[in-house]
């Protein structure tokens, strides 16, 4: 349970850092470009990078939380 809370706290802090522009754009741009190339979709423009990173963070949090809830329900 502590890992679950720690993960959510870390992702929340990362999301706040991206939203308030505390995380450098160059770091996010390389990360999001790699993710988009892996999935096989077009990369966002420089103006859309922050929003794309926030969408990826939200998606990962939802996926991990649902999987954790399913594991808790089964076991």
Strand count: 0
Distance between the termini: 13 Å
Rg, Cα atoms, Å:
14 Å
Biggest beta sheet attributes = none
Number of domains: 1
What is the residue-mean pLDDT, rounded to a whole number?
A: 91
Q: Given the structure, what is the number of helices?
A: 3
H/E order of the elements?
HHH
Question: Would you write up a description of this structure?
Answer:
This protein is mainly alpha-helical and 75 residues long. It has one domain. It has helices at residues 2-19, 25-39, 49-74. The chain is flat, with a radius of gyration of 14 Å. The two termini are 13 Å apart. The model has no long low-confidence stretch (mean pLDDT 91).
Summarize the SSE layout with pairings.
Blueprint (H helix, E strand, L loop, with lengths): L1 H18 L5 H15 L9 H26 L1
Helix pairs in contact: 1-3, 2-3
Key attributes of the depicted protein:
3 helices; single chain; 75 residues
Explain briefly what this protein structure is.
With 75 residues, the protein is mainly α.
């Amino acid at each position: 349970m502590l890992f679950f809370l720690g993960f959510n706290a870390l992702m929340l802090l990362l999301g706040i850092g991206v939203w308030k522009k505390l995380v450098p754009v160059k770091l996010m741009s390389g990360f999001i470009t790699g993710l988009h190339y892996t999935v096989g979709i077009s990369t966002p423009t420089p103006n859309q990078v922050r929003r794309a990173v926030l969408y990826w963070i939200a998606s990962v949090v939802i996926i991990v939380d649902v999987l954790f809830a399913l594991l808790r329900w089964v076991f």
